[in-house]
Write a structure and sequence with these properties.
Chain lengths: ~200, ~200
């Protein structure tokens, strides 16, 4: 692109670094910001800068938090003996939105992925082991993506955690609610037949 | 959404104000920035803030520029007697990319649109009239969108400019190059028959 201004070109280049944002979209966003009031743009850039500089992670579960301990970890209403292991903060938000879970979390910060060069030492694995050694935890639930990376991570963590006297579970896999059988992929359908559950157990409580 | 942090919530809200960015995309972008180095995020927010505070518009053509006069207006290689009237800086970039135009520009900063409350006084109309009174301009080309707003703007400007002894033209409209006839819309096809040109004139020089 032929930019008439270096300032404009730099701003477009910065926006184009964001995931899923190309040159044209970046230009559209930058021109939108140029049309806004100076104070609004200052607020935009200030909020982002403040976020990166002041953000903290809960010392217990490593979820994004404003304090040293997040609201969930410091709540007396939550069952501290039940830990749900997730990949990142989006998963915490998704599970919280269901209103079906009353335990606490442990945010790994990623999944084991040799292809991307992410090993156990890049994740919050040691801190999870530590929590289990110190605290009175009764159950650990793995709520990780049903992908190769998710399964690898569960396999690794299971080996690490079986030394403790706790029950270890994973969230149920199978056909989604509202899913029509003919559109379900073969692997999911095949496994959901192999891992069928007694009818009484299939009813959600 | 259930945010675990006020800082995170604010940053997502700011991103979600951008055109075409919803809450989920905003969250993805913010979490991406959180994973970047502090210096990189500082550069991102700094560049945007700097852009809005330091951007200037060429005193002659009102295109975005770093100096008082843009490179095109101050170039001796450009034909200063030929002015192409466009809506915004994106149109200047598009025309420059064709390498087919050697004149200068006049950026209106919008189009007349009563529906959106944009009248002639919101656009750089007076400054265009001024340029024509002072400078030795021979031709004005309207390169505006082929929409209701574009046509309204051309109609208005034409009335304003016909007092001057200059030729006024609009960019050619018709079927696009590579366009297959059966897929061209009726209005475009109908008009391109009505405004047919002698074969010799249709060859681009």
């Amino acid at each position: 692109m032929n930019f008439s201004s270096k300032l404009l070109e730099n701003a477009v280049a910065e926006f184009a670094k964001l995931p899923g944002v190309g040159q044209k979209t970046a230009l559209r966003l930058v021109l939108h910001l140029l049309n806004q009031e100076k104070e609004d743009v200052e607020k935009f850039s200030g909020t982002i800068s403040k976020l990166r500089n002041e953000i903290r992670f809960c010392s217990t579960c490593h979820n994004i938090s404003d304090q040293q301990f997040c609201e969930i970890c410091s709540s007396h209403k939550r069952d501290q003996s039940l830990i749900c292991v997730v990949e990142d903060t989006r998963d915490v938000m998704a599970i919280e939105n269901t209103s079906q879970y009353n335990g606490v979390y442990h945010v790994l910060g990623g999944l084991i992925s040799p292809m991307d060069g992410i090993g156990p030492s890049d994740l919050q694995v040691d801190t999870l082991v530590e929590r289990l050694s110190n605290d009175e935890v009764k159950e650990v639930i793995f709520a990780l993506s049903a992908t190769m990376e998710g399964d690898t991570t569960i396999f690794y963590l299971h080996k690490k955690l079986k030394q403790f006297n706790i029950s270890i579970s994973t969230i149920a896999r199978g056909i989604a609610f509202g899913g029509e059988l003919e559109y379900v992929d073969e692997i999911t359908l095949g496994r959901s037949i192999a891992t069928r559950v007694p009818y009484e157990n299939s009813l959600s409580r």
